[in-house]
Amino acid sequence: DSTEVATADLKAHASGLEERPPPGPYDVEAEDPLSGGCIADAAVLTWASADAEASPAAAALPMQLARRHLDEGVFEATLQRYSEAESWGLSMDFSDGVTVYVTKVHGGGALAAQRYNAAQAAEEARIRAGDYVLEIDGVTGGGQKFAELLKQGLERRLKIRHPIEETYRVHKNGRSLGMELQYPPKHGVAVCLTQVASDGAVRASGADIAAGDRVTKVNGIPGAGEDLVRMMSQSE
C-alpha cells in the first residue's frame, strides 16, 4: 500500500509518531499558542521546501528539482505599516523554530503585505502563501525571535524564499510512516515535520526530507493541519 505526500520543503530527521507540542511560537495574526499534531501510518506526500542544499539522495529521485535553483526564488520585501496596532497582513506558522512559514496573505489591499505586493510588477517578487521567511532585518533564528520582531516597529525587511514542491509515494508495508509532526491550530495549511525515524516507511521510501519540511497535500488533497494528519493516519 502507498500514500502520496506533497511537501513544501525546508528540510526533516528521525523518530516515531507521537503528539509533540511546539516550543512556544504562535500565529502572528492571533498570537495563539501552536498545538501539536501527529500521524501514525501513512500516505503520496507533497512537500514544500526552502532548503537550497542539494543532497546525495536527490539525484536518485527524478521528480525532485535540483535545490541549487532555489536561490533564484530568494528576494527581500520591505513591509511598512502606519501603526503598531496595524496587522502586517500575514498569517504565519513558526513550527520549525528556524524560519517562518507564510500560511496566508490577507486580501483587501489595505495592510502592509498587500500594499507591498500591489507595488511589485514581478509575480516572483510578491509574498504568497507557502513562502518561507528566512530573516527579518538581518536576524535569523525564526520562532520567538521573529515573533517578537513582528510585534513591534513600523517597518521590517524580510528575506523570503519561495518553496519548492516535491511529491513522494510512500509504501507502508505494515510499518508506520515514522514521522513526528506539529501544526498551528489556526491558519494551518500544512504540517511541519519535526523528526523522521530511520526505520519508518517515509525514510525507507528514499524521500529526501528534513526538519522544517511541511506536508501540504496527502494523495493530492490539500487541507488544514488536522485534516492532513487524519488523511495520513487513515491511508492504507
Determine the number of helices (DSSP H or I, runs of at least 4 residues): 4
- Based on secondary structure, the structural category is alpha+beta
Strands, count: 13
Roughly what percent helix?
A: 10-25%
Mean pLDDT level:
73
What's the SSE pattern? EEEEEEHEHEEEEHEEH
Proportion of strand residues: 25-35%
Low-confidence stretches: 9-43, 52-70
Biggest sheet character: 8 strands, antiparallel
Shape: elongated
User: Between the first and last Cα atoms, what is the distance in angstroms?
Assistant: 6 Å
> How big is the Rg?
17 Å
Any chance you could write out the topology, listing elements then pairs?
Blueprint: E1 2-9, E2 35-38, E3 45-49, E4 74-80, E5 90-93, E6 100-105, H1 112-118, E7 132-136, H2 143-151, E8 155-161, E9 164-171, E10 179-183, E11 191-196, H3 201-204, E12 214-218, E13 221-222, H4 225-234
Antiparallel strand pairs: 1-9, 1-12, 2-10, 3-9, 3-12, 4-8, 5-6, 6-7, 7-8, 10-11, 11-12, 12-13
